[in-house]
Amino acid sequence: MAGARRPGRNFLFVPGPTNVPDRILRAMHVAMEDHRSPDFPKLTLPLFEDLKKIFKTKDGQVVIYPSSGTGAWESALTNTRSPGDKLLAARFGQFSHLWIDLARRHGLEIIVQEEEWGTGASPERIEEALREDKDHAIKGVMVVHNETATGVTSDVAAVRRAIDAAKHPALLYVDGVSSIGSIDFRMDEWGVDLAITGSQKGLMLPAGLGIVCASQKALAAMKDAKCRRAYFEFTDHMKANATGYFPYTPALPLLHGLRESIAILQEEGLDNVFARHRHLAVGARAAVKAWGLKLCAKEPKWHSDTVSAIMVPQGFNGADVIDRAYRRYNLAIGAGLSQMAGKLFRIGHLGDLNELMLLGAIAGAEMAMNDVGIEVELGSGVGAAQAQFRRNAALKETKVAAE
Ligand SMILES: *Cc1c(COP(=O)(O)O)cnc(C)c1O
Q: pTM for the full model?
């Protein structure tokens, strides 16, 4: 098969990059232009304002970098911290691990709260640690809202309540790379100080934009932050951005794509986007249940609406399922990372996606599992998801009829 033409579409069901809608592809197909022209701010100024609506903030400050999400991680930390600063971070998956690793490489002292993979940040433990920190040595709390490696969503509002209950001034740093634009996220209401995202997940763009939103409290902390930074210097961006420009050449096609992405999200309505992700996720979870398999997420309260990490039975290798799905059925599903390597596979269900597309992925996963000897009944997951989707459609219709 290798090298042969593969007819039809590749089914892209990794949890990022996600499918780029044709509208966005077309919007990015533009001639280059002078990014110092008097017309350029017409494209850029509204982007900053509209992104604030997606972060749900009134006076947050948005910065857009030509980077992946990892650059936004780095920016949020280096612009607000000094080497030696202590931060508290919960670790329960590969992304929370990598963020901690990045922070340490910048000389930050990270107090790690280990949580079992398949669970998430513990507001109780965070509150306890902050209460014990009487002299306020801890400068920030780092939380990955949606741990993409395990399909776990943490309760950021509860983390904020924990910080407040401990009457602690620590800043709240939140990785929203695989949640913002897909799962409800409320920067102001939850008192998030640094919110981080990237372009290739819920925003339905190619990778290449790292986006940070900073609260006023975070901007105040910037004044004496001594971590080294140059390319990611927030103030260079803020100064240029104020008039619609950038301190260096921006990734123009991606900015046009972002314009279209925001338009698409606004047309559907953010709340409807979140509801669609919930609806699709419930269908995926019904399929997993029908297969007799378990999610990596230990309890319903941890269930992610953007990615399901599915444990393969003992004696099987999740990597074989992924390999088979890709080679035989042109279906890309995500691998288990680090301590979950081989133990699971992940179906990403975020971005520009509908029920029938997801049913295709569930069908492909079912076939691939059988191919490698995991005897889930063919059609069982598809049938369970179909039933779930129809129930929900019926619900919606009854609602409409009642209105
Ligand atoms: C994808 C992702 C990132 C960023 O990864 P990049 O490859 O640098 O864009 C960070 N955190 C989470 C939770 C992610 O899912």
A: 0.97
